[in-house]
Amino acid sequence: MTTVPPVSQASAAADAPTTRDHASSGEGVTPYVWGLVRLMLGWTFLWPFLDKTFGLGHETASAGAWIHGGSPTTGFLKGSVGPFSGIYHSMAGSSIADWGFMIGLLLIGIALLAGIGVRVAAISGAVLLVLMWSASLPPANNPFMDDHLISAAVLIGLALVSAGNTLGLGRWWSTHGLGRDHPWLR
Fold first, then answer.
1. Of 20, 87, 116, 173, which sits 20 to 30 A from 186 (CA to CA)?
2. Structural domains counted in the chain
3. What pTM was computed for the model?
């Protein structure tokens, strides 16, 4: 006959839920924090699309708007410095760069704001941010780290915690149509 050893207090304490377990279980305020961060980052992608498209006057004057023939990539890419500046200078103002950049901003922004396709949006947004970071090496205030890399890491975190499920349509999307049939699109 086998006997079960008594449970020690240390063992029982190790099995007790912790604050970290509670937070990662999707309970409490944690999902709302991630949902809010997702919404904020979504806006940081959608706003430049709107400003560069319509010349709303924040960073882009009306005369330089995309709808008035302006190029949304010329200013940033022509001003690039560092080891990749030659590549970015040659891409500045090209229709492929302009369309790719603007479609990326729009789709990433909408996906993050809606909470649909957060995984794809997070990866795409992280790639776009790392490319923007590489166009301005070294950053002005640090040997290598800047807000582009931090935001890219936060985007990956959003995908990992299914941030579209809170304050978004992610939970619905995962049970309907493409979101249900293709988990990578969640």
1. 20
2. 1
3. 0.82
